[in-house]
């Protein structure tokens, strides 16, 4: 099953027939179908599949006679990415890295390569945080970057907790958390991902860094009431400070040279003729350095409180997740760049599991050109020739790191 066939098999899963956007939220039917696809491709290649306690999956190509319990001291070379999506996401963000990983293993085998160290293909759970709100939830749990008790209590839009969903998926919510044995078996992690910007002009590039980025939740508490019979003076309408917060986010970003986005809001009760009782809004803020991002969030918070005061609305701010700047492992990055003959090296404003793993193991990223530069949208795209160039690059990198 080559790259094209695997891609064709995944393409329709979770795709909205009208918008073309993807809805593959962690442990919902479309994402479970993607997981089943992953397991079938791993079995097809006789890869040894390991599920960690956090919902992540690893398919191991073990050296001849190797076993999962006897990895070499230098550890495995792991590649892969994620299969979940943002609401209305694109086809490439995540799956391109997983399909390319299987295709690269196939190419190595066709060429008679024999790994001297295990090669792993990873799928990390809930990378987008679209269901439970925290980005890279699976890789954060694996690396100890989030408190397991907090993770268990995370809820989705229907009030289901992460613990419930894990239990229903056959996992033990009590077992989630850092897995030092598994981390100790990962020698390095190289994630291939579609470029989510307009900077890459060649088919394949290498990541230098991920800029600081995070997401914060604002809760505005007001008083629900009738839209027609409630005098303006009697209202405590949380929509008003929410509106102020959205404008303030853009203005703070312009002042601080960052980017800030409010893309998700939940209004309760959400009736046309009902004044909201509460509004929850999420701020995504990113920027060149931690201080600029922190200033942006602080200014948005201050503006929200100023806007709330005259309406006697409460404002609560919670940090959902934050990743400081990730400078990828220079030695690994330079070795990969050398293998690929000096490709462009560029930063990214998008978060990735590789950025979370980088805190614990040498990590690197390959980018595949996206001519539209658009991502988290059905317009996200990569030319088939560039996708195959990505597979070729990943093949060369795995060959050098695991077989050479
Ligand atoms: O949000 C991000 O930056 C990534 O696409 N998860
Ligand atoms: Mn994404
Ligand atoms: Mn991604
Ligand atoms: Mn009525």
Automatic annotation (TrEMBL):
User: What terms describe the molecular function in GO for this protein?
Assistant: hydrolase activity, acting on carbon-nitrogen (but not peptide) bonds, in linear amidines; metal ion binding
Binding-site list for allantoate: 215, 273, 286
Keywords of this protein's UniProt record, alphabetized?
A: Hydrolase, Metal-binding, Zinc
Transmembrane segments in this chain: where? none
* Any one Pfam family match given in the protein's UniProt record, by short name: Peptidase_M20
How, per the record, is the cofactor bound?
Answer: Binds 2 Zn(2+) ions per subunit.
Positions of Zn(2+) 2 binding: 93, 128, 376
Residues annotated to bind Zn(2+) 1: 82, 93, 193
**Top-level division of the source organism's lineage:** Bacteria
Q: Which Gene3D superfamilies match?
A: 3.30.70.360, Zn peptidases
Task: Name the cofactor(s).
Answer: Zn(2+)
Has UniProt tagged this entry with the keyword Cell cycle?
A: no
Q: Which family does it belong to?
A: Belongs to the peptidase M20 family.
* PANTHER family reported for this sequence: ALLANTOATE AMIDOHYDROLASE, ALLANTOATE DEIMINASE-RELATED
Q: What is this protein called?
A: N-carbamoyl-L-amino-acid hydrolase
Q: Can you name the source organism? A: Actinomadura hallensis
């Amino acid at each position: 099953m080559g790259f094209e066939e695997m891609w064709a098999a995944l393409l329709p899963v979770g795709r909205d027939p009208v918008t073309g956007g993807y809805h593959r939220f962690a442990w919902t039917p479309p994402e479970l179908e993607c997981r089943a696809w992953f397991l079938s491709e791993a079995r097809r290649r006789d890869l040894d599949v390991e599920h960690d306690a956090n919902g992540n999956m690893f398919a191991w190509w073990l050296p001849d006679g190797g076993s999962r319990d006897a990895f070499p001291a230098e550890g495995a070379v792991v590649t892969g990415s994620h299969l979940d999506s943002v609401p209305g996401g694109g086809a490439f963000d995540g799956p391109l890295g997983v399909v390319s990983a299987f295709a690269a293993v196939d190419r190595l085998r066709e060429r008679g390569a024999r790994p001297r160290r295990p090669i792993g293909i990873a799928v990390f759970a809930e990378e987008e945080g679209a269901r439970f709100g925290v980005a890279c939830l699976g890789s954060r749990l694996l690396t100890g970057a989030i408190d397991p008790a907090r993770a268990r209590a995370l809820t989705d839009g229907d009030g289901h907790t992460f613990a419930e969903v894990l239990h229903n998926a056959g996992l033990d919510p009590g077992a989630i958390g850092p897995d030092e044995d598994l981390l100790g078996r990962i020698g390095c992690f190289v994630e291939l991902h579609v470029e989510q910007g307009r900077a890459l002009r060649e088919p394949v590039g290498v990541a230098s860094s991920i800029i600081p980025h995070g997401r914060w939740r604002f809760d505005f508490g007001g008083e629900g009431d009738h839209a027609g019979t409630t005098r303006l003076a009697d209202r405590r309408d949380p929509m008003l400070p929410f509106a102020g917060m959205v404008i303030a986010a853009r203005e703070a970003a312009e002042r601080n040279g960052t980017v800030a986005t409010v893309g998700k809001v939940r209004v309760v009760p959400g009736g046309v003729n009902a004044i909201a009782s509460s509004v929850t809004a999420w701020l995504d803020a990113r920027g060149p350095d931690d201080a600029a991002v922190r200033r942006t969030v602080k200014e948005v918070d201050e503006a929200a409180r100023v806007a709330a005061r005259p309406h006697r609305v409460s404002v609560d701010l919670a940090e959902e997740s934050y990743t400081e700047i990730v400078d990828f492992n220079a030695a690994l990055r330079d070795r990969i760049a050398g293998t690929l003959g000096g490709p462009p090296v560029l930063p990214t404003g998008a978060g990735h599991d590789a950025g979370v793993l980088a805190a614990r193991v040498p990590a690197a990223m390959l980018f595949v050109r996206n001519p539209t530069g658009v991502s988290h949208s059905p317009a996200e795209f990569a030319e088939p020739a560039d996708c195959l160039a990505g597979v070729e690059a990943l093949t060369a990198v795995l060959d050098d790191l695991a077989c050479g």
